[in-house]
Amino acid sequence: MTDQHAEPARGPGTAGPGPDGTGFAYQGAEEELIVVARPEARLRAQPDGVSSAAGADVSALNMFLGDEQLALEPLFGNEERLQGITEAAQAGADIPDLALFYRVRGGADRAQELRSRIAALPEIDTAYVKPGAVPAGSAAEFEEARRMKEKAAATPDFTGRQRYLGPAPEGIDAQWAWQRLGGSGEGVTVIDVEGAWQLGHEDLSAKLAGVVVGTPISDVAWRNHGTAVLGVIGGDRNERGITGIVPEAVTAAASFQGVGTAAAIHAAAERLNPGDIVLVELHRPGPRFDFEPRDDQRGYIALEWWPDDFAAIKYATAKGIVVVAAAGNGAESLDDAVYERRPDEFPAWWHNPFNPSNRSSGAVLVGAGAPPPGTHGRDHGPDRSRLAFSNYGARLDAQGWGREVTTTGGSWNGPGDLQGGAEEIAWYTDTFSGTSSASPVVVGALAALQGMLKAGGQRPMTSQRAREALRATGSPQQDAPGRPASQRIGNRPDLRAAVTNLLPSTVGSGQAERYWDELIPYPPELPPRLRLFVAGSWRNLNHPSPEIRQAVHAAFAGGRPDIRVWFSDDEVVGLVVTG
Protein backbone atom coordinates (compact mmCIF):
# COMPACT_ATOMS: atom_id res chain seq x y z
CA MET A 1 0.00 0.00 0.00
CA THR A 2 1.25 3.50 -0.76
CA ASP A 3 1.00 6.79 1.07
CA GLN A 4 0.17 9.40 -1.56
CA HIS A 5 -2.25 12.31 -1.73
CA ALA A 6 -1.62 14.89 -4.43
CA GLU A 7 -3.99 16.66 -6.81
CA PRO A 8 -3.47 19.11 -9.68
CA ALA A 9 -4.85 22.55 -8.94
CA ARG A 10 -6.59 23.47 -12.20
CA GLY A 11 -7.55 22.44 -15.73
CA PRO A 12 -10.33 20.29 -17.19
CA GLY A 13 -11.49 17.58 -14.84
CA THR A 14 -9.98 19.13 -11.71
CA ALA A 15 -13.11 20.74 -10.23
CA GLY A 16 -14.94 19.27 -7.26
CA PRO A 17 -18.15 17.26 -7.47
CA GLY A 18 -20.63 20.06 -6.77
CA PRO A 19 -22.16 22.70 -9.04
CA ASP A 20 -19.41 24.72 -10.76
CA GLY A 21 -16.83 22.76 -8.77
CA THR A 22 -18.20 23.74 -5.38
CA GLY A 23 -19.20 21.34 -2.64
CA PHE A 24 -22.50 19.88 -1.52
CA ALA A 25 -24.33 20.25 1.80
CA TYR A 26 -27.00 17.67 2.64
CA GLN A 27 -29.32 17.95 5.62
CA GLY A 28 -30.56 15.16 7.87
CA ALA A 29 -27.69 12.66 7.94
CA GLU A 30 -27.01 11.55 11.53
CA GLU A 31 -24.14 9.78 13.25
CA GLU A 32 -24.65 6.11 14.12
CA LEU A 33 -23.43 4.50 17.34
CA ILE A 34 -22.71 0.83 16.58
CA VAL A 35 -22.05 -1.77 19.29
CA VAL A 36 -20.33 -5.13 18.74
CA ALA A 37 -21.10 -7.73 21.43
CA ARG A 38 -18.73 -10.44 22.65
CA PRO A 39 -19.66 -13.73 20.90
CA GLU A 40 -19.63 -15.71 24.15
CA ALA A 41 -22.22 -13.40 25.73
CA ARG A 42 -24.91 -14.36 23.18
CA LEU A 43 -26.87 -11.19 23.83
CA ARG A 44 -30.59 -11.02 23.06
CA ALA A 45 -32.12 -7.53 22.92
CA GLN A 46 -35.81 -7.12 23.73
CA PRO A 47 -37.99 -4.02 24.19
CA ASP A 48 -37.80 -4.47 27.97
CA GLY A 49 -34.02 -4.92 28.13
CA VAL A 50 -31.09 -7.16 27.20
CA SER A 51 -30.67 -10.78 28.23
CA SER A 52 -27.98 -13.42 27.65
CA ALA A 53 -28.67 -16.81 26.08
CA ALA A 54 -25.42 -17.96 27.71
CA GLY A 55 -26.45 -16.88 31.22
CA ALA A 56 -23.96 -14.01 31.41
CA ASP A 57 -24.54 -11.21 33.90
CA VAL A 58 -25.95 -8.28 31.87
CA SER A 59 -27.16 -6.21 34.82
CA ALA A 60 -24.49 -3.51 34.31
CA LEU A 61 -25.44 -3.18 30.65
CA ASN A 62 -29.15 -2.92 31.43
CA MET A 63 -28.48 -0.41 34.21
CA PHE A 64 -26.44 1.77 31.87
CA LEU A 65 -29.12 1.66 29.17
CA GLY A 66 -31.85 2.48 31.68
CA ASP A 67 -29.98 5.34 33.33
CA GLU A 68 -29.18 6.95 29.96
CA GLN A 69 -32.61 6.22 28.47
CA LEU A 70 -31.09 4.27 25.62
CA ALA A 71 -32.17 1.14 23.76
CA LEU A 72 -30.02 -1.52 22.16
CA GLU A 73 -31.53 -3.01 19.03
CA PRO A 74 -30.16 -5.76 16.78
CA LEU A 75 -28.79 -4.08 13.69
CA PHE A 76 -29.77 -6.88 11.31
CA GLY A 77 -32.80 -8.41 13.04
CA ASN A 78 -33.49 -11.39 15.30
CA GLU A 79 -30.26 -12.78 16.77
CA GLU A 80 -31.30 -16.46 16.74
CA ARG A 81 -32.23 -16.32 13.07
CA LEU A 82 -29.07 -14.43 12.16
CA GLN A 83 -26.84 -16.84 14.01
CA GLY A 84 -28.31 -19.74 12.07
CA ILE A 85 -27.87 -17.98 8.74
CA THR A 86 -24.30 -16.97 9.53
CA GLU A 87 -23.27 -20.45 10.69
CA ALA A 88 -24.73 -21.98 7.53
CA ALA A 89 -22.95 -19.55 5.20
CA GLN A 90 -19.76 -18.77 7.10
CA ALA A 91 -17.72 -21.73 5.94
CA GLY A 92 -17.99 -20.82 2.26
CA ALA A 93 -18.35 -17.06 2.37
CA ASP A 94 -16.59 -16.01 5.59
CA ILE A 95 -19.43 -13.67 6.62
CA PRO A 96 -18.95 -11.79 9.91
CA ASP A 97 -21.45 -12.88 12.57
CA LEU A 98 -24.34 -10.48 11.96
CA ALA A 99 -25.91 -11.35 15.34
CA LEU A 100 -23.12 -9.46 17.16
CA PHE A 101 -24.01 -6.02 15.74
CA TYR A 102 -26.33 -3.60 17.57
CA ARG A 103 -27.44 -0.02 17.09
CA VAL A 104 -27.95 2.35 20.01
CA ARG A 105 -31.21 4.30 20.01
CA GLY A 106 -31.22 7.64 21.82
CA GLY A 107 -28.48 10.03 22.96
CA ALA A 108 -28.26 11.58 19.51
CA ASP A 109 -25.89 14.40 20.45
CA ARG A 110 -23.67 12.37 22.80
CA ALA A 111 -22.53 9.53 20.57
CA GLN A 112 -18.80 9.87 21.28
CA GLU A 113 -19.28 10.12 25.06
CA LEU A 114 -21.65 7.13 25.10
CA ARG A 115 -19.33 5.10 22.87
CA SER A 116 -16.47 4.96 25.35
CA ARG A 117 -18.76 4.15 28.26
CA ILE A 118 -20.70 1.34 26.59
CA ALA A 119 -17.51 -0.16 25.11
CA ALA A 120 -16.16 -0.61 28.66
CA LEU A 121 -19.04 -2.86 29.77
CA PRO A 122 -18.20 -6.55 30.34
CA GLU A 123 -20.32 -8.13 27.57
CA ILE A 124 -19.36 -5.62 24.88
CA ASP A 125 -16.42 -6.23 22.55
CA THR A 126 -16.26 -2.69 21.17
CA ALA A 127 -18.32 0.27 19.95
CA TYR A 128 -17.71 2.91 17.30
CA VAL A 129 -19.38 6.01 15.87
CA LYS A 130 -20.01 6.30 12.14
CA PRO A 131 -20.21 9.81 10.65
CA GLY A 132 -23.43 10.63 8.84
CA ALA A 133 -23.61 9.23 5.31
CA VAL A 134 -24.41 11.52 2.38
CA PRO A 135 -25.04 10.92 -1.33
CA ALA A 136 -21.91 10.53 -3.57
CA GLY A 137 -44.71 13.95 -0.12
CA SER A 138 -47.88 12.26 0.17
CA ALA A 139 -50.03 10.61 -2.54
CA ALA A 140 -52.34 13.62 -2.47
CA GLU A 141 -49.43 15.95 -3.18
CA PHE A 142 -48.29 13.79 -6.10
CA GLU A 143 -51.81 13.76 -7.58
CA GLU A 144 -52.13 17.54 -7.28
CA ALA A 145 -48.73 17.93 -8.94
CA ARG A 146 -49.89 15.71 -11.79
CA ARG A 147 -53.01 17.81 -12.29
CA MET A 148 -50.87 20.96 -12.40
CA LYS A 149 -48.47 19.32 -14.84
CA GLU A 150 -51.32 18.40 -17.19
CA LYS A 151 -51.95 22.13 -17.67
CA ALA A 152 -48.30 22.86 -18.51
CA ALA A 153 -46.42 22.34 -21.77
CA ALA A 154 -45.48 18.75 -22.58
CA THR A 155 -41.97 17.63 -21.62
CA PRO A 156 -39.67 17.36 -24.67
CA ASP A 157 -37.69 14.26 -25.58
CA PHE A 158 -34.24 14.61 -23.96
CA THR A 159 -32.82 11.21 -24.93
CA GLY A 160 -30.57 12.78 -27.56
CA ARG A 161 -28.63 14.34 -24.68
CA GLN A 162 -28.01 10.94 -23.04
CA ARG A 163 -24.81 10.10 -24.87
CA TYR A 164 -23.98 7.48 -22.25
CA LEU A 165 -26.67 5.28 -23.88
CA GLY A 166 -24.83 5.22 -27.20
CA PRO A 167 -22.06 3.07 -28.68
CA ALA A 168 -18.74 2.45 -26.95
CA PRO A 169 -16.31 3.91 -26.21
CA GLU A 170 -18.26 7.12 -25.52
CA GLY A 171 -21.29 5.25 -24.17
CA ILE A 172 -22.00 1.77 -22.85
CA ASP A 173 -24.01 0.57 -25.90
CA ALA A 174 -27.35 0.40 -24.07
CA GLN A 175 -29.24 1.08 -27.29
CA TRP A 176 -27.64 -2.01 -28.81
CA ALA A 177 -28.58 -4.05 -25.75
CA TRP A 178 -32.25 -3.03 -26.12
CA GLN A 179 -32.35 -5.00 -29.38
CA ARG A 180 -31.42 -8.24 -27.63
CA LEU A 181 -33.68 -10.46 -25.56
CA GLY A 182 -33.52 -9.32 -21.93
CA GLY A 183 -31.25 -6.37 -22.77
CA SER A 184 -33.69 -3.83 -21.34
CA GLY A 185 -33.34 -5.42 -17.88
CA GLU A 186 -36.33 -7.76 -18.01
CA GLY A 187 -36.59 -9.93 -14.90
CA VAL A 188 -34.09 -7.86 -12.86
CA THR A 189 -34.82 -5.80 -9.74
CA VAL A 190 -32.56 -2.98 -8.51
CA ILE A 191 -32.86 -1.40 -5.04
CA ASP A 192 -31.22 1.99 -4.53
CA VAL A 193 -29.95 2.55 -0.95
CA GLU A 194 -29.74 6.23 0.00
CA GLY A 195 -31.95 8.96 1.50
CA ALA A 196 -34.92 10.13 -0.55
CA TRP A 197 -36.61 10.17 -3.97
CA GLN A 198 -39.40 11.94 -5.84
CA LEU A 199 -41.46 8.80 -6.35
CA GLY A 200 -44.18 10.70 -8.22
CA HIS A 201 -41.88 11.75 -11.06
CA GLU A 202 -43.61 11.61 -14.45
CA ASP A 203 -40.77 9.55 -16.00
CA LEU A 204 -40.49 6.89 -13.27
CA SER A 205 -43.98 5.44 -13.21
CA ALA A 206 -43.74 2.25 -15.27
CA LYS A 207 -41.54 -0.04 -13.15
CA LEU A 208 -41.03 1.76 -9.80
CA ALA A 209 -41.92 -0.40 -6.79
CA GLY A 210 -41.60 2.25 -4.04
CA VAL A 211 -39.75 2.35 -0.71
CA VAL A 212 -39.03 -1.06 0.83
CA VAL A 213 -37.44 0.07 4.12
CA GLY A 214 -36.70 3.24 6.09
CA THR A 215 -38.24 6.71 6.06
CA PRO A 216 -37.19 9.07 3.23
CA ILE A 217 -35.45 12.28 4.32
CA SER A 218 -37.59 15.35 3.79
CA ASP A 219 -35.10 17.47 1.86
CA VAL A 220 -35.15 18.51 -1.78
CA ALA A 221 -31.42 17.89 -2.30
CA TRP A 222 -31.80 14.28 -1.15
CA ARG A 223 -34.92 13.84 -3.32
CA ASN A 224 -33.18 15.25 -6.38
CA HIS A 225 -30.26 12.90 -5.86
CA GLY A 226 -32.33 9.73 -5.54
CA THR A 227 -34.59 10.73 -8.42
CA ALA A 228 -31.55 11.25 -10.66
CA VAL A 229 -30.19 7.81 -9.77
CA LEU A 230 -33.47 6.03 -10.54
CA GLY A 231 -33.79 7.88 -13.85
CA VAL A 232 -30.36 6.74 -15.07
CA ILE A 233 -31.26 3.14 -14.29
CA GLY A 234 -34.95 2.78 -15.04
CA GLY A 235 -36.44 5.93 -16.54
CA ASP A 236 -39.57 5.10 -18.54
CA ARG A 237 -39.29 4.35 -22.26
CA ASN A 238 -41.66 6.82 -23.90
CA GLU A 239 -41.60 9.90 -26.12
CA ARG A 240 -40.83 12.45 -23.39
CA GLY A 241 -38.00 13.14 -20.99
CA ILE A 242 -35.27 10.56 -20.67
CA THR A 243 -34.96 6.78 -21.03
CA GLY A 244 -33.21 4.62 -18.45
CA ILE A 245 -30.45 2.21 -19.36
CA VAL A 246 -32.76 -0.69 -18.40
CA PRO A 247 -36.32 0.64 -18.68
CA GLU A 248 -37.85 -2.81 -18.13
CA ALA A 249 -36.03 -3.46 -14.84
CA VAL A 250 -38.01 -3.05 -11.61
CA THR A 251 -36.55 -0.32 -9.39
CA ALA A 252 -37.15 0.23 -5.67
CA ALA A 253 -35.76 2.42 -2.91
CA ALA A 254 -34.35 1.78 0.59
CA SER A 255 -33.80 4.73 2.92
CA PHE A 256 -31.22 4.49 5.69
CA GLN A 257 -33.03 7.09 7.80
CA GLY A 258 -34.35 5.45 10.94
CA VAL A 259 -32.48 2.16 10.45
CA GLY A 260 -28.89 3.06 9.54
CA THR A 261 -26.88 2.27 6.43
CA ALA A 262 -25.91 -1.33 7.23
CA ALA A 263 -29.46 -2.34 8.17
CA ALA A 264 -30.81 -0.70 4.99
CA ILE A 265 -28.34 -2.67 2.84
CA HIS A 266 -29.24 -5.89 4.66
CA ALA A 267 -32.99 -5.25 4.37
CA ALA A 268 -32.66 -4.54 0.64
CA ALA A 269 -30.76 -7.79 0.11
CA GLU A 270 -33.42 -9.72 2.03
CA ARG A 271 -36.03 -8.59 -0.52
CA LEU A 272 -34.06 -9.67 -3.59
CA ASN A 273 -33.22 -12.87 -5.44
CA PRO A 274 -29.84 -14.02 -6.76
CA GLY A 275 -28.85 -11.91 -9.73
CA ASP A 276 -30.71 -8.81 -8.54
CA ILE A 277 -28.77 -5.66 -7.65
CA VAL A 278 -28.30 -3.43 -4.59
CA LEU A 279 -26.86 0.01 -5.31
CA VAL A 280 -25.22 1.88 -2.41
CA GLU A 281 -25.32 5.59 -3.32
CA LEU A 282 -23.60 6.87 -0.17
CA HIS A 283 -20.17 7.73 1.21
CA ARG A 284 -18.99 9.24 4.48
CA PRO A 285 -16.02 11.11 5.98
CA GLY A 286 -13.00 8.87 6.44
CA PRO A 287 -9.83 9.00 8.54
CA ARG A 288 -7.95 11.43 6.26
CA PHE A 289 -9.51 14.43 8.03
CA ASP A 290 -10.40 12.66 11.27
CA PHE A 291 -13.92 11.70 10.10
CA GLU A 292 -15.06 15.34 10.01
CA PRO A 293 -17.86 16.32 7.56
CA ARG A 294 -16.77 18.70 4.78
CA ASP A 295 -18.80 20.39 2.06
CA ASP A 296 -16.05 19.68 -0.49
CA GLN A 297 -16.25 15.94 0.41
CA ARG A 298 -12.46 15.62 0.48
CA GLY A 299 -11.49 12.46 2.32
CA TYR A 300 -14.92 10.81 1.91
CA ILE A 301 -14.76 7.07 1.22
CA ALA A 302 -16.91 4.06 0.39
CA LEU A 303 -19.08 2.65 3.18
CA GLU A 304 -17.55 -0.82 3.14
CA TRP A 305 -14.60 0.44 5.23
CA TRP A 306 -16.83 0.35 8.37
CA PRO A 307 -17.28 -3.11 9.94
CA ASP A 308 -21.11 -3.29 10.02
CA ASP A 309 -21.49 -1.96 6.46
CA PHE A 310 -18.87 -4.48 5.32
CA ALA A 311 -20.79 -7.27 7.06
CA ALA A 312 -24.08 -6.25 5.41
CA ILE A 313 -22.51 -6.07 1.94
CA LYS A 314 -20.72 -9.38 2.46
CA TYR A 315 -24.03 -10.97 3.48
CA ALA A 316 -25.69 -9.67 0.31
CA THR A 317 -22.96 -10.83 -2.07
CA ALA A 318 -22.82 -14.26 -0.38
CA LYS A 319 -26.54 -14.54 -1.05
CA GLY A 320 -25.96 -14.06 -4.79
CA ILE A 321 -26.96 -10.39 -4.91
CA VAL A 322 -24.77 -8.06 -6.98
CA VAL A 323 -23.81 -5.06 -4.87
CA VAL A 324 -22.58 -1.90 -6.59
CA ALA A 325 -21.21 0.95 -4.46
CA ALA A 326 -19.92 4.45 -5.12
CA ALA A 327 -16.19 4.62 -4.37
CA GLY A 328 -16.64 8.17 -3.06
CA ASN A 329 -15.81 11.73 -4.07
CA GLY A 330 -12.93 12.18 -1.64
CA ALA A 331 -10.06 12.60 -4.17
CA GLU A 332 -8.42 9.76 -2.26
CA SER A 333 -6.10 6.96 -3.20
CA LEU A 334 -7.74 4.01 -1.49
CA ASP A 335 -4.32 2.34 -1.68
CA ASP A 336 -3.06 4.86 0.88
CA ALA A 337 -1.56 3.53 4.12
CA VAL A 338 -4.03 5.59 6.18
CA TYR A 339 -6.70 2.99 5.42
CA GLU A 340 -4.54 0.16 6.74
CA ARG A 341 -4.58 1.53 10.28
CA ARG A 342 -7.36 -0.07 12.32
CA PRO A 343 -9.16 2.47 14.51
CA ASP A 344 -8.99 1.50 18.19
CA GLU A 345 -12.79 1.29 18.29
CA PHE A 346 -13.04 -1.29 15.48
CA PRO A 347 -13.22 -5.04 16.30
CA ALA A 348 -9.94 -6.96 16.23
CA TRP A 349 -11.03 -9.04 13.21
CA TRP A 350 -11.30 -5.95 10.97
CA HIS A 351 -8.89 -5.63 8.06
CA ASN A 352 -8.83 -2.89 5.44
CA PRO A 353 -11.27 -3.97 2.69
CA PHE A 354 -9.67 -1.60 0.17
CA ASN A 355 -6.54 -3.77 0.23
CA PRO A 356 -6.99 -6.55 -2.39
CA SER A 357 -4.86 -8.84 -0.23
CA ASN A 358 -7.56 -8.86 2.46
CA ARG A 359 -10.96 -10.50 2.23
CA SER A 360 -13.31 -8.57 0.00
CA SER A 361 -16.90 -7.49 0.53
CA GLY A 362 -17.51 -8.63 -3.04
CA ALA A 363 -19.08 -5.32 -4.06
CA VAL A 364 -18.40 -3.65 -7.39
CA LEU A 365 -16.70 -0.34 -6.52
CA VAL A 366 -17.22 2.48 -9.04
CA GLY A 367 -15.15 5.57 -9.82
CA ALA A 368 -16.05 8.73 -11.78
CA GLY A 369 -14.65 9.23 -15.26
CA ALA A 370 -14.81 12.22 -17.59
CA PRO A 371 -17.46 12.19 -20.33
CA PRO A 372 -16.44 12.82 -23.94
CA PRO A 373 -15.13 16.39 -24.38
CA GLY A 374 -17.81 18.66 -25.81
CA THR A 375 -20.71 16.92 -24.08
CA HIS A 376 -23.25 19.70 -23.44
CA GLY A 377 -20.57 22.12 -24.65
CA ARG A 378 -18.19 21.44 -21.77
CA ASP A 379 -14.77 19.84 -21.39
CA HIS A 380 -13.79 17.84 -18.29
CA GLY A 381 -10.60 16.38 -19.71
CA PRO A 382 -9.89 13.33 -21.88
CA ASP A 383 -12.76 10.88 -22.24
CA ARG A 384 -12.67 8.18 -19.52
CA SER A 385 -9.92 9.92 -17.55
CA ARG A 386 -10.27 10.10 -13.78
CA LEU A 387 -12.08 13.19 -12.55
CA ALA A 388 -10.03 14.81 -9.80
CA PHE A 389 -12.65 14.35 -7.08
CA SER A 390 -13.02 10.61 -7.70
CA ASN A 391 -11.40 8.15 -5.32
CA TYR A 392 -9.14 5.64 -7.04
CA GLY A 393 -7.00 2.59 -6.40
CA ALA A 394 -6.58 -1.13 -6.99
CA ARG A 395 -9.93 -1.86 -5.29
CA LEU A 396 -11.98 -0.03 -7.96
CA ASP A 397 -13.62 -2.20 -10.60
CA ALA A 398 -15.19 0.16 -13.16
CA GLN A 399 -16.04 3.75 -14.00
CA GLY A 400 -19.14 5.54 -15.23
CA TRP A 401 -19.81 9.06 -16.40
CA GLY A 402 -19.00 11.38 -13.49
CA ARG A 403 -20.23 14.57 -15.19
CA GLU A 404 -22.92 15.72 -17.64
CA VAL A 405 -25.38 12.91 -16.92
CA THR A 406 -28.86 13.76 -18.22
CA THR A 407 -31.59 12.28 -16.06
CA THR A 408 -34.68 12.90 -13.95
CA GLY A 409 -34.70 15.26 -10.95
CA GLY A 410 -33.50 18.73 -10.12
CA SER A 411 -30.07 20.29 -9.94
CA TRP A 412 -28.70 19.55 -6.45
CA ASN A 413 -31.03 21.50 -4.12
CA GLY A 414 -33.13 23.35 -6.70
CA PRO A 415 -35.27 22.87 -9.80
CA GLY A 416 -33.90 21.11 -12.85
CA ASP A 417 -31.38 22.96 -15.00
CA LEU A 418 -32.65 21.17 -18.12
CA GLN A 419 -36.33 21.54 -17.20
CA GLY A 420 -37.45 23.27 -14.01
CA GLY A 421 -40.73 24.89 -13.14
CA ALA A 422 -43.13 24.64 -10.22
CA GLU A 423 -43.80 20.91 -10.52
CA GLU A 424 -41.04 18.77 -9.03
CA ILE A 425 -42.39 15.68 -10.81
CA ALA A 426 -41.30 17.19 -14.14
CA TRP A 427 -37.78 18.33 -13.26
CA TYR A 428 -34.84 17.15 -15.37
CA THR A 429 -31.11 17.82 -15.09
CA ASP A 430 -28.17 17.80 -17.49
CA THR A 431 -25.54 17.96 -14.75
CA PHE A 432 -25.89 14.97 -12.42
CA SER A 433 -22.33 14.24 -11.30
CA GLY A 434 -19.93 12.44 -8.97
CA THR A 435 -19.39 8.79 -8.24
CA SER A 436 -23.14 9.05 -7.60
CA SER A 437 -23.82 9.50 -11.33
CA ALA A 438 -21.13 7.00 -12.31
CA SER A 439 -22.52 4.16 -10.18
CA PRO A 440 -26.03 3.92 -11.73
CA VAL A 441 -24.43 3.85 -15.19
CA VAL A 442 -22.55 0.71 -14.13
CA VAL A 443 -25.68 -0.69 -12.46
CA GLY A 444 -27.62 -0.19 -15.69
CA ALA A 445 -24.97 -2.07 -17.65
CA LEU A 446 -25.00 -4.97 -15.18
CA ALA A 447 -28.80 -5.14 -15.14
CA ALA A 448 -28.81 -5.33 -18.95
CA LEU A 449 -26.31 -8.18 -18.80
CA GLN A 450 -28.32 -10.01 -16.13
CA GLY A 451 -31.45 -9.67 -18.26
CA MET A 452 -29.68 -11.10 -21.30
CA LEU A 453 -28.23 -13.97 -19.27
CA LYS A 454 -31.68 -14.84 -17.91
CA ALA A 455 -33.27 -14.61 -21.36
CA GLY A 456 -30.56 -16.93 -22.70
CA GLY A 457 -31.22 -19.54 -20.03
CA GLN A 458 -27.88 -18.82 -18.31
CA ARG A 459 -27.24 -18.38 -14.60
CA PRO A 460 -27.07 -14.70 -13.60
CA MET A 461 -23.77 -13.23 -12.52
CA THR A 462 -22.69 -13.21 -8.92
CA SER A 463 -21.12 -10.01 -7.65
CA GLN A 464 -17.67 -11.53 -8.09
CA ARG A 465 -18.43 -12.58 -11.67
CA ALA A 466 -19.70 -9.06 -12.37
CA ARG A 467 -16.41 -7.62 -11.10
CA GLU A 468 -14.46 -9.99 -13.33
CA ALA A 469 -16.53 -9.13 -16.41
CA LEU A 470 -16.13 -5.38 -15.83
CA ARG A 471 -12.38 -5.72 -15.39
CA ALA A 472 -11.93 -8.02 -18.40
CA THR A 473 -13.92 -5.89 -20.86
CA GLY A 474 -14.88 -2.28 -21.43
CA SER A 475 -13.42 0.92 -22.84
CA PRO A 476 -10.07 1.56 -21.10
CA GLN A 477 -9.37 4.41 -18.71
CA GLN A 478 -7.37 7.25 -20.29
CA ASP A 479 -4.59 9.48 -18.99
CA ALA A 480 -5.17 13.13 -18.08
CA PRO A 481 -2.59 15.75 -17.05
CA GLY A 482 -1.74 14.96 -13.43
CA ARG A 483 -4.20 12.06 -13.37
CA PRO A 484 -2.63 9.09 -15.15
CA ALA A 485 -4.55 5.89 -15.82
CA SER A 486 -2.38 4.24 -13.17
CA GLN A 487 -4.68 6.04 -10.70
CA ARG A 488 -7.16 3.28 -11.31
CA ILE A 489 -10.88 3.84 -11.69
CA GLY A 490 -11.25 1.01 -14.22
CA ASN A 491 -12.90 0.68 -17.62
CA ARG A 492 -16.20 2.14 -18.76
CA PRO A 493 -18.63 -0.77 -19.41
CA ASP A 494 -19.03 -1.92 -23.01
CA LEU A 495 -22.12 -4.12 -23.25
CA ARG A 496 -21.23 -5.68 -26.60
CA ALA A 497 -17.81 -6.73 -25.35
CA ALA A 498 -19.23 -7.96 -22.04
CA VAL A 499 -21.86 -10.09 -23.79
CA THR A 500 -19.12 -11.72 -25.84
CA ASN A 501 -17.28 -12.40 -22.60
CA LEU A 502 -20.29 -13.84 -20.77
CA LEU A 503 -22.52 -15.52 -23.36
CA PRO A 504 -21.44 -18.38 -25.60
CA SER A 505 -21.74 -17.19 -29.21
CA THR A 506 -23.06 -19.71 -31.73
CA VAL A 507 -23.96 -18.98 -35.34
CA GLY A 508 -27.12 -20.54 -36.74
CA SER A 509 -28.72 -20.33 -40.15
CA GLY A 510 -32.09 -20.76 -41.80
CA GLN A 511 -34.59 -19.51 -44.37
CA ALA A 512 -36.39 -16.24 -43.79
CA GLU A 513 -40.13 -16.91 -43.49
CA ARG A 514 -41.31 -13.29 -43.27
CA TYR A 515 -39.91 -9.83 -42.83
CA TRP A 516 -40.58 -6.43 -41.32
CA ASP A 517 -38.81 -3.35 -42.64
CA GLU A 518 -38.72 -1.06 -39.60
CA LEU A 519 -38.44 2.32 -41.29
CA ILE A 520 -39.37 4.20 -38.10
CA PRO A 521 -37.73 2.34 -35.20
CA TYR A 522 -39.14 2.27 -31.69
CA PRO A 523 -37.71 3.44 -29.41
CA PRO A 524 -36.47 6.21 -31.73
CA GLU A 525 -32.91 5.87 -30.38
CA LEU A 526 -32.58 2.48 -32.10
CA PRO A 527 -31.09 2.30 -35.60
CA PRO A 528 -33.20 1.48 -38.67
CA ARG A 529 -33.64 -2.30 -38.83
CA LEU A 530 -34.64 -4.97 -41.26
CA ARG A 531 -36.22 -7.74 -39.21
CA LEU A 532 -36.35 -11.29 -40.57
CA PHE A 533 -38.20 -14.22 -38.98
CA VAL A 534 -35.77 -17.13 -39.07
CA ALA A 535 -35.72 -20.44 -37.14
CA GLY A 536 -38.62 -19.46 -34.90
CA SER A 537 -37.43 -15.97 -33.88
CA TRP A 538 -37.03 -12.45 -35.22
CA ARG A 539 -33.44 -11.54 -36.18
CA ASN A 540 -32.25 -7.96 -36.65
CA LEU A 541 -30.10 -6.43 -39.38
CA ASN A 542 -29.15 -2.89 -38.33
CA HIS A 543 -28.65 -0.10 -40.90
CA PRO A 544 -29.50 -2.25 -43.95
CA SER A 545 -28.28 -0.84 -47.23
CA PRO A 546 -30.86 0.28 -49.82
CA GLU A 547 -29.72 -2.60 -52.06
CA ILE A 548 -30.41 -5.24 -49.36
CA ARG A 549 -33.77 -3.67 -48.55
CA GLN A 550 -34.80 -3.72 -52.21
CA ALA A 551 -33.64 -7.31 -52.72
CA VAL A 552 -35.60 -8.59 -49.68
CA HIS A 553 -38.73 -6.63 -50.73
CA ALA A 554 -38.52 -8.06 -54.26
CA ALA A 555 -37.99 -11.65 -53.06
CA PHE A 556 -41.09 -11.60 -50.85
CA ALA A 557 -43.13 -9.73 -53.49
CA GLY A 558 -42.39 -12.55 -55.93
CA GLY A 559 -44.19 -15.01 -53.66
CA ARG A 560 -41.36 -17.58 -53.42
CA PRO A 561 -38.64 -15.93 -51.33
CA ASP A 562 -35.31 -17.69 -51.10
CA ILE A 563 -33.36 -15.78 -48.45
CA ARG A 564 -30.66 -17.59 -46.50
CA VAL A 565 -29.80 -15.93 -43.16
CA TRP A 566 -26.92 -16.52 -40.78
CA PHE A 567 -27.46 -15.22 -37.27
CA SER A 568 -25.89 -15.05 -33.81
CA ASP A 569 -28.64 -14.96 -31.21
CA ASP A 570 -31.02 -12.28 -32.57
CA GLU A 571 -28.45 -10.45 -34.72
CA VAL A 572 -28.10 -11.11 -38.47
CA VAL A 573 -24.44 -11.70 -39.35
CA GLY A 574 -24.92 -12.81 -42.96
CA LEU A 575 -27.61 -12.82 -45.65
CA VAL A 576 -27.91 -14.13 -49.23
CA VAL A 577 -30.94 -13.42 -51.45
CA THR A 578 -31.24 -15.87 -54.39
CA GLY A 579 -34.85 -15.49 -55.37
From TrEMBL:
Source superkingdom: Bacteria
Enzyme class: hydrolase
Enzyme Commission identifier(s): 3.4.-.-
Entry keywords, A to Z: Hydrolase
Protein name stated in the entry: S8 family peptidase
